Structures are given as structure tokens and as C-alpha cells.
Amino acid sequence: MRRRSAPRPSAPLRGLATVGTEEPRDEPTAGVVSAPPPGPAHLRVPAARDVFGLIAFVVLCFGVASLGGIATRPAIPEWYAALRKPSWTPPNWVFGPVWTILYALMAVAGWRVWRGGRARPAALVFFLQLALNGAWSWLFFGLRRPDLGLLGITLLWLAIVATMIAFWRVSRKASLLFVPYLAWVSFAAALNFAIWRIN
User: Fold this and answer.
1) pTM given for the model
2) What top-level class would CATH report for the domain 51-198?
């Protein structure tokens, strides 16, 4: 025999069956004020922080360049001019514009990583390479010791590579901004070695 299905409840009964099964609605919690939607007033503080951060990195990098220049400028007319140099040594006027561009790229790279946050290891190696950068001028030009300069620029090259690796984990663009810097320091290291060898 066929089993007869139970009769379906009428519309009013179906409506009663759904009573109490609706999902509870979130009620506003007393004393809790929801955050207002982001607007211009909320964007001004981070933007200002970014600008001041960029300015700080520019001042820091070019400040190190200025400290190095204190040792470099007096040595160029006499001591450096008297050194025997390889034929592929660039003219003196090339170094200023090249280093200006490199310090600017260095500042932007450091600023981009600083904006990313959670970059303490990257910041440490960045400041290390910056200190070694300034120290090389004092070793090579200040002390007039190409041998110590070669040691310093070797450590600088290693610090730059370490900085690029650390930056890559935070900002790949920041790491790539160091490529011209690494290329130039590689060339400068070769020049330093050649000057040390023939003098």
C-alpha cells in the first residue's frame, strides 16, 4: 500500500513555523561608538608622516655624504691628483652627479621600507651600509690609505648586498633601487684595488 504523505501546513501555519528561527540581528552595544568612515581628516596625518619620513631619509643620506665630503675635498687637488691611476679612471666631475643620484635613490629606498613597517632587520643593515659608506671616504681620502679604503669598500659592498636581500622581503622596488648603487660601488671597488696595486 502507498503511504499517504502528511498534509502540508497552510500558509498561516507555515508563517507560524518560522517564528523564532530568524537569525538575531546585531544590536548596537551601549557605550561603543563606531569609527567614522575615512575622510580627508583621517588621510592628512599619514600623508604628513610619509612626507616628513621621506625628508628625514633624504637629510640622513645627504648628511652622510656631506660628512664624507669633509674628508674627500681637501685630498683631491694634491694627494689624489698625484696618485697613479688606471686608464679607465673617470674624470673627477663624474663622481659628484653620480653620487647625488645614488644618495637620492638610497633615501627613497630606505623610506619605502620604513613605510612598510616590521622592517627592523632591514633598517639595521641599511644604517650599517650608510655608516660604511661614510667611513670609506675617511679611510681612503681622510687617512690617505688606499689599502684601508679597499677593506672598507669590500665591507660596504657586502653590506649593500645584505641590505638588498633584507629590502626584498619588505619591498622589491626598494631593493631594485639599490641596483645602481651596487653597480657603482663594484666599479669603485675595482678602481680602489687598481690604485692600491699600482701605488
Assistant:
1) 0.76
2) mainly alpha
Distance CA 10, CA 61 (A): 81
Higher pLDDT, residue 166 or 22? 166
Alpha helices in the chain (DSSP H): 11-17, 40-75, 81-82, 92-116, 120-137, 146-168, 172-176, 179-198
User: Domain-by-domain residue ranges, the chain?
Assistant: 51-198
What is the C-alpha end-to-end distance of the chain, expressed in Å?
A: 114
Q: In angstroms, how far is CA 186 from the centroid of its own chain?
A: 20
Instruction: Tell the residue number behind the cell numbers 645584505, with chain if given.
Output: 162
Measured over all CA atoms, what is the biggest interatomic distance in the chain, rounded to whole angstroms?
118
d(CA 120, CA 84): 43
- Cβ atoms of 63 and 127 closer than 8 Å: no
